[in-house]
Design a protein that fits this description.
The chain is an alpha/beta fold and about 300 residues long. Helices cover about 45% and strands about 25% of the residues. The strands form three sheets. The chain has a six-stranded mixed β-sheet. A five-stranded mixed β-sheet has the order 4-3-5-13-6, with helices on both faces. A two-stranded antiparallel sheet has the order 1-2. A hairpin with a 2-residue loop joins strand 1 and strand 2 (about 55). Helix 1 packs across helix 2 and helix 5 crosses helix 11 (about 290-305). It starts with a helix and ends with a helix. This is LysR family transcriptional regulator. Keywords: DNA-binding, Transcription, Transcription regulation.
């Protein structure tokens, strides 16, 4: 059975005559009649009752025409989707919680497709803004750094917003510091929490109460001297290079790019933090990611798997 035969049977029913249907379909009457009979033989049922006064549907024919119309409607929707998809350029919109390597991988993607029609968007923002942008379909995927503290609460909120969170990497927290930090010239590969207790700490602004509470839980363990809140990466790096402040974040050796930092900025692992940091991605639950989103996430996963 072919789709064209379904269309032919529906046209015969609509016109009430094989002759009129043949004219409408620009077919010879004999060809249309032969095609309908072939369809009926294949189905093992008659679709039409033929008489000198015209044609009518059998009980099987009534069901066949109803289902046939649904099939053609779905096929039309698929064809419309394909046509629309072919007309639109490849696109990717990513929301990221201030991950240094994410912007470099995004730039690599831009370079790979610089000669093709694509629409790309990259946003750095607070955790809550990343979650909201994916939930409201402003961005297709989001990348987050999350402490594993109170995970049932923040993962539950993400789930309730219709999102799926997939953990990619878990690691110990690190501090970043500039040449004015008293720990900068220490030759030890690690620092402990007590060494951080009197230092200013730089954090990113977070308006959502749940995510703000996570930061407070982290800072309660660190007991910093002062808080400096910023909303952009450039200011944070400038503060690191010009003050004694530190920034607490996740670090992966393969995901570090020296060009992202001003000269003199170093990293140290915090050995007794009492918590770990995760990197994971968000997407709408049930959503099939586009080609560029899949490619971008694959590059993230490959980098963090090294």
């Amino acid at each position: 059975m072919k789709l064209e035969q379904i269309r032919q049977a529906i046209e015969v029913y609509n016109t009430g005559s094989i002759n009129r249907a043949a004219q409408s379909l620009y077919l010879a009457q004999s060809s249309l009649s032969s095609s309908i009979k072939s369809l009926e033989r294949e189905l093992g049922h008659d679709i039409f009752v033929r008489s000198q006064s015209g044609i009518s549907l059998t009980s099987f024919g009534v069901e066949f025409i109803a289902h046939g119309r649904e099939i053609l409607k779905h096929m039309a929707a698929i064809e419309q989707y394909i046509d629309r998809d072919c007309e639109q350029p490849l696109s990717l919109s990513v929301a990221v919680y201030y991950l240094f390597f994410a912007s470099r991988l995004f730039t690599d993607l831009c370079n790979r497709y610089h000669e093709e029609p694509i629409a790309l968007n990259y946003v750095e923002d607070a955790r809550s803004a990343v979650v909201t942008s994916v939930a409201e379909e402003q961005c297709e995927i989001g990348l987050l750094t999350m402490p594993d503290l109170k995970k049932s609460q923040w993962s539950g909120m993400i789930h309730d917003m219709g999102l799926e969170y997939v953990r990619i990497y878990t690691g110990a927290p690190y501090i970043m510091m500039g040449p004015h930090c008293p720990l900068h010239d220490d030759t030890q590969a690690e620092v402990n929490m007590a060494q951080l207790s009197s230092l200013p700490i730089i954090t990113y602004a977070e308006p959502h109460p749940l995510f703000a509470a996570l930061d407070e839980e982290v800072f309660h363990r660190v007991q910093p001297g002062n808080f400096i809140t910023v909303s952009d990466r450039g200011t944070m790096i400038h503060l690191l290079s010009q003050t004694s402040a530190v920034h607490l974040g996740v670090f992966h050796p393969s995901a570090s790019f020296d060009s992202d930092f001003f000269p003199g900025i170093q990293r140290r692992r915090v050995r007794d933090a009492g918590f770990m940091l995760e990197i994971g991605y968000l997407k709408k639950r049930g959503h099939t990611l586009g080609l560029l989103a899949q490619e971008y996430l694959q590059s993230v996963q490959e980098l963090l798997a090294k």
